[in-house]
Structure formats: C-alpha cells, structure tokens
Amino acid sequence: LPYVPHVSPMALLGKVTATTFALERPRCVFDGHADASDAVWLAVAFANASAAFRNPQSRADVPRYQQLPTARSYMTLETAAAAFSCSAPSPPVLRVGGDTACRDQGRQDPCNGPLPSPGPYRVKFLLMGCRGPKAETRWSEPILLRSAVSPSALEPVPAGPGGAVVVIASILASLGAVLATAVLGALG
Questions:
Q1: Does 177 lie in the same domain as 100?
Q2: 3-class SS at 111?
Q3: First vs last Cα of the chain: how many Å apart?
Q4: Distance between CA 106 and CA 114 in Å, rounded?
C-alpha cells in the first residue's frame, strides 16, 4: 500500500521521548483489503535492519518484543482491522514503546515495550489474516528518539550578578542622582 507511517504532526507533549514516539493512526488505509477477522500489526525495526525484516506467515511467527536486541525488529499493537476503517472512532495517535510491563521476560503476548536506544527506528503496518499477510504499508522514514544527557555534560549556567556587584551598582546610581541634583541646584 502506498501509505507511509509517520510521527504525528499534532502538537503533543511527549511526541518523541527517550523510549517512545507517537505515530499518526492510519485511517482508511486497509479498507477494501480487510475482512472482519483480520488484524493490523505494527512492525518496528532498527532502521539498518528494516530491509532484512520478513513478514511472518502466521501469528505464531510474529517476532516478539523480547527478541528486539538480537532480531533487531519486533511486531506489536495487534488491533482489529475495523479499528482503522474510515468510519471507526479512534484516537488520532498510537504510542510506540508505552508499555513498561513488557520488561517482564515471562510475558508472552505481543508487547509494546519501551524502545531500548535512540534508534533510529523504522515502522510499517501489516494487515494479517488467518492465512498470513494480506497487505502492508511502506516503511517510515527513520525515527530518532531523544537522548538523555548526562548531568556532567551540561555546561554550568553562569551565575547572575553577585551581591557585591548589586551593592556597588546601587551606590553608583545613588551618587549619580545626588550629583545631578547638585548640578541642577547650582544652575537654578
């Protein structure tokens, strides 16, 4: 399908963080391709691994979040295809990486866990039926997450004027006012 996923253009707090990003929800993309029993998945891959990603042939073959460090990709956000139809009321964005409970290694269901590094990542949507993939979007452009900055790397903020500077400036300003008053008094 010609649709290219992208980070939401809406002004959102936390649109891109150190472990998550907000994708615009595709609408009307799968209409005409999906049946009532189909599901839409989001494939997430490191940008340099997206070309090697192979669509799974069944739900049992879906790469899991826990495999991301070695497989360099996973699939998440399994959603009924009807939720992406033109008529479906749905939130305008999908948060990728928002489920912190995914760190539990025993969890087997498709997980939407925090992304482990700044990336960059690429994503695509995949429509799957009971017999495997039916349609897919194109890969997104690379999405780079924010990087945390070490406190030692921050430059110190210059301190404001010290107390002595403020006192001296006040005295000089007062002396200037007294001098101006004396000059005006002598002329008048």
A1: no
A2: coil
A3: 89
A4: 16
Environment class of 56 (CB within 10 Å of its CB; exposed 0-12, middle 13-18, buried 19+)? middle
Residue labelled with tokens 């008094």: 185
3-state secondary structure of 89: coil
In a domain, 152, yes or no: no
DSSP 161-172: --HHHHHHHHHH
Same domain as 133, residue 176: no
Domain tally for the chain? 2
Amino acid identity for residue 71 in this structure: A
Q: Whole-prediction pTM value?
A: 0.73
Place of tokens 């749905």: 90
pLDDT tens by residue, 82-120:
888 888 777 888 999 988 887 665 555 688 889 988 889
